Amino acid sequence: MRSYLIRGAAPAGGKALDVLVVEGLITQVGTSIKADAEVIDGAGLVLLPGLVDLHTHLREPGREDAETVESGSAAAALGGFTAVHAMANTEPVADTAELVEQVQRLGERAGLVEVRPVGAVSKRLAGEQLAEIASMARSAAAVRVFSDDGRCVHDSRLMRRALEYVKPYDGVVAQHAQDPRLADGTACCHEGTVSGRLGLPGWPAVAEESIIARDVMLAEHTGSRLHVCHVSTAGSVEVIRWAKARGIDVTAEVTPHHLLLTTDLLESYDPVFKVNPPLRPAEDTLALRAALADGTIDAVATDHAPHAAHDKDHAFADAAFGMLGLETALGVVAETMVTTGLLDWAAVADRMSVRPATIGRLAGHGRPVAEGEPANLTLIDPAGEHVVDPAASASKSRNNPYAGRTLPARVVATFFRGRPTVFEGRLVAGVSV
Amino acid sequence: MKHLLSAADLSRDEALGILDTAARMHAIQTREVKKLPPLRGRTVVNLFFEDSTRTRSSFEIAGKWLSADVINVSAKGSSVSKGESLRDTALTVAAMGVDALVVRHNASGAVQRIAQWVDCAVVNAGDGTHEHPTQALLDAYTLRGRLGPIEGRHVVIVGDITHSRVARSNVLLLNTLGARVTLVAPPTLMPSGVASWPCTTSWDLDEALCGKAHGDVDAVMMLRVQHERMDGGYFASAHEYAATYGLSPRRLDYLGEGVPVLHPGPMNRGLEISSAAADGAHSVVLDQVQAGVAVRMAVLYTLLAGGEEVAV
């Protein structure tokens, strides 16, 4: 295996240092390191621990026309990720040990990022019976994150049992908070002025907030670990802040799109902006940014949701929910959190790598840039302003809501287990680990 | 004007222009021979993704009286359930050499989407719970026929505002034409953010019709309330809805002489409107149907013949 010397990049935005990578590990961090290694000029660049995504839809098995584990892994690497959590809502649903092991194997075969399967909470995501959580946890895939994402575990008793059931495995239930009685499957626009004017079925903030309120109480009652997916409202932030202050073991994520994009984009009726939970008003995006800055929200998670064009070429109400996110996540976080002064790069590393790795109980990721640590690293250009071009994506899908937008930072290189998967902003040909 | 997608697309002059053209078109409805030649050789397709009898036949007659070839395409249940995308359906139909697509769809915004994909003129014949601009135009035409100029008039619209494309288009167009609008509905059927609309609102029909505004109401428009809304918990029973928001004979008596009562149809007699209101001297329901043909002729004429002077 080749050795690499990253010269003069700033680990987590601190003082510029040289970092030597040998045999998959960081073997030396210092100044003026001399080594027989390929030298990468890191001047002016920031070196972060490889990004970890808690919430990725890779669509395989079942919808390989929209994304595969391999194409999604490539998009992840280009976005600076070294690990992704593949959501369970595939076809068939990842609700058995065999299925999560299959996803795990596909990830290893692609070899671009660590693919951590998420197991379903309920069989077929039907919300009725527990999925084989213990088998998935004890399988070769060693699943730690369980989620019916795309659907809410709405039944209170099932949610309580799931929280209890994951405890022996140090597992976490990642909840898609949406009361289906307050926001059913047709709800597709934040309930407010825009939904009223456009005549789109409303998705009220309370449908999310009331489930989170119930779930943090259940987490307290069971003494178990709850993670809240894609928090989208200011009210949800308040509930989570209260729960954390009370000592409840709850973590939360926010998507890049909920940090940047707002409900008014739906005026175009363009389903590229159709996502669940829906885009919220600007007041919510500001509350979410503040919560990510103060740590109430622990992590940024992409909810990368690829869809074939023919699933989006419909009327807004009939089109599929979801948008791409892996390749633009860092740029959007830079735009909303770094250029605004809310986070420095060390805090970005915390919210996009350290904390998500901790929540997912993922070893070898989210580690400091220090001697002896695994070389899962992301080299970024904080001045790498660029215009988003959906056609340039490694994803099989093109439902990119940022098309034509200028984002302030870009990924220069990604190292996964000591090898570059991305270099000079491009996938390294023939990478496999 | 390339398309007619929203009542908000129309400036005051454009709206008045269509209403004036409609008046000239209306004149031929009483003739024995009703056809005019201006759209000879042009093709109008009624592309309906949702069932409709009155709007579709109104557009069909309007096109035919202007000598256009009119084809009805029922695309109900095509699109999503059969796996065809809306884009494919629209492009397929448009590729047949169509000059205008008249589109109705059960999803809000569907017609706007189609207008972005095809080259021909597109008329919104009702999109979901969003808009129905030709209905607003025919309502304005009817009001003008009864009341003269619309400017300064006060129109009360009553019923399921949340799910009404008729209400949305009427609020926009009446506002453009200088009228005042009051929306009346129970809180469960009042849309989110209605406070930002250019109108006033009330939960109390009696107050709206004979409270301090008594004598100030120039027209009342009753909206259809679907029985299914009861299942959604929007109101308790048909009886209670009729008692609270129906245009009963008692409420009809509040109205001054010559105050027209409109309804876009089809009517639920005994629910939102009593037979006394539907059939009495105030009712202009059949005038609305007649106006529908004239207004749709005017819209097709304006879009396809580019506003040349009509030789009637």
Structural features, described:
The complex is a heterodimer of chains A (433) and B (312). By secondary structure, chain A is α/β, with parallel strands linked by helices. Chain A folds into 2 domains: 4-46 and 373-391 and 406-427, Urease, subunit C, domain 1, CATH 2.30.40; 51-359, TIM Barrel. In chain A, 27% of the residues lie in helices and 20% in strands. Chain A has helices at residues 69-78, 97-110, 133-138, 156-165, 193-198, 205-222, 234-245, 256-260, 282-294, 329-338, 345-359; strands at 4-11, 17-22, 25-30, 38-41, 46-49, 51-56, 81-86, 114-117, 145-146, 172-175, 189-190, 202-203, 226-228, 250-254, 299-300, 377-381, 386-387, 406-407, 410-416, 419-423, 426-427. In chain A, the strands form 5 sheets. In chain A, strands 1, 2, 3, 4, 5, 16, 19, 20 and 21 form a 9-stranded mixed β-sheet that branches. Chain A has a 5-stranded parallel β-sheet with strand order 9-10-13-14-15. Chain A has a 3-stranded parallel β-sheet with strand order 6-7-8. In chain A, a hairpin with a 5-residue loop joins strand 1 (4-11) and strand 2 (17-22). In chain A, helix 1 packs across helix 2. The model of chain A has no long low-confidence stretch (mean pLDDT 97). With 312 residues, chain B is α/β, with parallel strands linked by helices. Chain B has 2 domains: 7-132 and 289-304, Rossmann fold (3-Layer(aba) Sandwich); 133-285, Rossmann fold. Chain B is built from 12 helices and 9 strands. Chain B has helices at 12-28, 54-65, 79-82, 86-94, 110-117, 133-147, 165-176, 205-210, 238-245, 249-254, 275-279, 285-304, and strands at 43-48, 69-74, 100-105, 121-127, 154-158, 180-184, 200-202, 219-222, 261-262. Chain B has a 5-stranded parallel β-sheet with strand order 7-6-5-8-9. In chain B, strands 2-1-3-4 form a 4-stranded parallel β-sheet, sandwiched between helices. In chain B, helix 2 links the parallel strand 1 (43-48) and strand 2 (69-74). The longest helix of chain B is centred in the C-terminal third of the chain and has 20 residues, at 285-304. The two termini of chain B are 22 Å apart. Classes of the chains: A alpha/beta (433), B alpha/beta (312). Chains A and B meet through helix 5 of A and helix 4 and helix 5 of B.
